[in-house]
Amino acid sequence: MSFPWANEYKPSHPFMQWMDEKLPVPRLVYNAVGAGYPVPRNLNYFWNFGFMALACLGIQIVTGIILAMHYAANGGVAFDSVEHIMRDVNWGWLMRYAHANGASAFFVVIYVHIFRGFFYSSYKAPREMVWLLGVVIFLLMMATGFLGYVLPWGQMSFWGAKVITGLFGAIPLVGEPLQQWLLGGFAPDNAALNRFFSLHYLLPFVIVGVVVLHIWALHIPGSSNPTGVEIKTESDTVPFYPYFIAKDGWTLGVFLFVFCAVLFFAPNMLGHPDNYIPANPMSTPAHIVPEWYFWPFYAILRAFTVNFFFIPAKLMGVMAMFGSILVWFFLPWLDKSPVRSGAYRPLFRKFFWFGLIPAMLVLFYCGGAPAEEPYVVLSQIAALYYFAHFLIILPLVSAVEKPEPLPYSITEAVLGHDENAKLANAG
Amino acid sequence: MAEQAVTDTPETGAGDGVRRRDFINIAAVSAAGVGGLATLVPLISQMAPSADVLAASSTEIDISSIQPGQAIKAEFRKQPVFLRNLTPQEIAAAEAVPLSELRDPQTLKERTKEGKLNWLITMGVCTHLGCVPLGAGEGEVKGDFGGYFCPCHGSSYDTAARIRKGPAPLNLQVPEFEFTSDTVVKIG
């Protein structure tokens, strides 16, 4: 669907006309990300992170395919083949650093993208499906990131794989056989490394597929915007091309500037030195930490230290960790406020900035810290708030809050007046 | 017209309402379903531990050189296993603990072979998140209870490798093993 005033694709060149009859791919592109897609004229910079995320996915796929040309997924040589890439392969160091830091960049961008959704309630009707597919993409990204981190077969790779697959061992009855099935052995070894490589290569293309669905679902109602007021007339919109292609291009340039600064000047900033030690099943690093983008969820996992009635602490931690993301699936139905944008919701805004964000930051910090006091108690408090925010606070806030007055239209929000508003009021 | 040709079948049964086509439909879908499910078996079970991994799942270890108070780390199923020759004091310390004090109650007798109370053989895998505890190597810290200590999250095990303190839920696992002679242990 699109708006009635959307530009229509009219190929002028005879070849493009011929193409349009046989396989209208140019028409599809024109309507999806071209002049045929009207977007709200008031989108702020937070709306540029979807495009940046797509660029990150592109960087990861291109560098990943290249790395796979030089990497060997065998426990005996995997570590050496990564060093071979770093030292011997022409530009190999660039490809590997771009891929490793590209993963971090992807998660930075996606976290901003997700929190944009939290603040502006992008998950609300009619865009629930866009949100649900986005959560699926995030879960796939986490799986892909974890699998990829195992491939260099350093100490953190090995012990990360052991701890994470060990989580499945916490499931009652089927846990241990399930863990052995996932690993193809009793501990991470060749079988695990090979299948992790296979899946790490597969999942990005699954992500591409879900991204297509994500954008497709988005284009049915059209993009949301910072006021949360739906598009009413043509004056509320501008065509995606050239306006947002240009703006997305500009933010992509800024993003690449920062990305390259890290890539060329601090490529190991986000890595862990222990991963430059080859995997050794007989010796554990003193302090096992996952990649930084898993820290908030790792903190929730470790926050459970005592048994909960008949449920062992370990299983509670595992359920809470998965639950902390699965709760996002229910967000469109937990937050019942008819007003979308946090900019017009005074109470919601307070809980967002002074509740959810600090809780996430505390969890983030504690997830990277050793499992000792005061970090355990801090992550317990933050985890408690995290779940309360989604399950208790959001439904309550949407029931009691008195939202601030909304503008009549996007046009009025931007220009301060809207001719149609006067007509509507007069009528 | 084509649609009608498909749905409009001649009556075959003598009024029991079951048509020949219904039978073919159910039979075909069932065969495809059973066939599809059967295909899943090899697709899924190929991921289970392979024959060579399983074949390497028993190991024989010579323990003749381990003096009382010493321990060695060996490899079993790609994981560390601790073989420890307990001193009489360590045995006494383990037996002095009342079972009610234990998180995972087990006696030293239950965790060792008959008449070989001094040979404590356990996996070197912390039951919390799978780290390798310290205490088997020469000079490594043994924790508050004189057994093993996991540096990852601070679980302490006693001289019978039973969990006493920290987040681990269970005692260090005792693998299946037997003494093939006085000096050789076969694990697995």
Overview of this protein structure:
The complex is a heterodimer of chains A (427) and B (188). By secondary structure, chain A is mainly α. Chain A has one domain (41-426): Cytochrome Bc1 Complex, Chain C (Up-down Bundle), CATH 1.20.810. Chain A has 17 helices and two strands. Chain A has helices at 14-22, 25-33, 49-68, 78-87, 92-119, 128-150, 155-168, 175-183, 190-219, 240-265, 295-302, 313-326, 331-334, 346-368, 375-400, 410-415, 419-426; strands at residues 38-40, 237-239. A two-stranded antiparallel ribbon of chain A has the order 1-2. In chain A, helix 4 crosses helix 5 (92-119), helix 5 packs antiparallel against helix 6 (128-150) and helix 7 packs antiparallel against helix 8. The two termini of chain A are 29 Å apart. The model of chain A has no long low-confidence stretch (mean pLDDT 93). Chain B folds into two domains: 2-45; 53-187, Rieske Iron-sulfur Protein, CATH 2.102.10.10. With 188 residues, chain B is α+β, with helices and mostly antiparallel strands. Chain B has a three-stranded antiparallel sheet with strand order 1-9-8, with no helix packed on it. Mean pLDDT of chain B is 84; it is low at 1-8. The A-B interface holds A 159, 162-163, 166, 180-187, 189, 191, 195, 281-284, 286-288, 302, 305, 312-314, 371-372 and B 44, 47-50, 53, 57, 73, 75, 77-80, 124, 128-132, 151-154, 167, 169.
